[in-house]
Amino acid sequence: MSTRRIVFTALTFACVAVATQLVHAQQKSKVIEIGKVVDEGPKLAFYIGTYTRGDSKGIYRSELDPQTGQMSLPKLAYEIDNPSFLAISNDQKNLYAVGEVADFGDGNSGAVSAFSFNEDGTLNLLNQEASRGKGPCHVEIAPNKTFLMVSNYGGGSFSTLPLGEDGQLAPAVSFFQHEGSSVNEGRQKGPHGHAMYMVPGSPLALAVDLGLDKVMIYRTSGSAAGELALNDPAYIEVQPGSGPRHLATSRNGQRVYVLNELDSTLDVFAFNPSTGESEHLQRVTTLPADFKGNNTTAEVYIHPNGQWLYASNRGHDSIATYRIDPETGLVTLQGHASTMGKTPRHFRIAPGGRHLLAANQDTSNIVIFDIDQKVGTLKPLPSQISVPNPCCIEFVQKY
């Protein structure tokens, strides 16, 4: 064997050995390209809430490879009835799920469940409590993890449940039964609580009621975790028949973006996070000008960088992308991306802000988009996974 060949062979084995050591030392997956090793980073686990009709059995778990955009085959994490909305605590230690039922406990309430994470990614049930109303459809955790907020669509009510240091739920300490109606006789004969959020850096909570065309404003009392009282002013009002469903707030709490389900619009409000005073600034459609079919909206989120807002359309079956003006907070439509399925009830932006995952409830598939880091528009990626009746996606970064 020539000296040149010996040297070449030795260098080859040395390079392989170094690459192998890096793989084992960092315990991260690698993509080996010609001449270099690229670090993908760890996989991102996410949990999927579903409606348990048909083939679904409860909450599922999958993983996203943030480098390739590939999603793993979903596995059942916990068998439970209608976990239609999920929330994961900021400390990444607990997952909470509503049970969108009407027969829990005394037979006149939905359920709320608290979980911890097992090492294999399955869920361990800690305890359950009544939501105090029928058909809970949304759950949100207070930023300091002292209580969570539950919205009861069927019952037209909202409740707050304290959280223990171990993540377990206590019975509700505040309960608000809304009364009234609005102009859409098919959907607004009575109140329908759809979502409740804390305003960032504020003692105020915003409760979105589709049946009343109002976003009610509550204030934390400070005396006990989860105790709320009606604020003065008491609400933000949208146009009759709009049917507000969900909302998003700017990071400073000074802009509120209300997504209206029934007329497929987005309202922008200036908001005082100290007093609750508001001023209407803008109203835009979520649909293309030439779309003539039936549509209802579903979900709205602001990108972590605060520059773009996304809203989902069910009927047009798309995600609308808007640019947020950094000075005024007003939005400009950037375009629409097909969700490659029917009824995108929910979507989530993956940690890192590079990908958006959309859950198509009626075609039982989850699709993924690459987010253009300059303008925020969405580009579909080829990876899809099949999950029966998916309706919520939540990421967890460790457990």
Quick recap:
The protein is mainly beta and 399 residues long. It is 6% helix and 49% strand.
List the topology elements.
Blueprint: H1 3-26, E1 30-33, E2 36-39, E3 44-50, E4 58-64, E5 75-79, E6 85-88, E7 94-99, E8 111-117, E9 123-130, E10 136-141, E11 147-152, E12 157-162, E13 174-177, E14 193-198, E15 204-209, E16 214-220, E17 228-237, E18 244-249, E19 255-260, E20 265-271, E21 278-285, E22 296-302, E23 308-314, E24 318-324, E25 331-338, E26 344-349, E27 355-360, E28 365-371, E29 378-386, E30 390-396
Antiparallel strand pairs: 1-2, 3-4, 3-30, 4-5, 6-7, 7-8, 8-9, 10-11, 11-12, 12-13, 14-15, 15-16, 16-17, 18-19, 19-20, 20-21, 22-23, 23-24, 24-25, 26-27, 27-28, 28-29
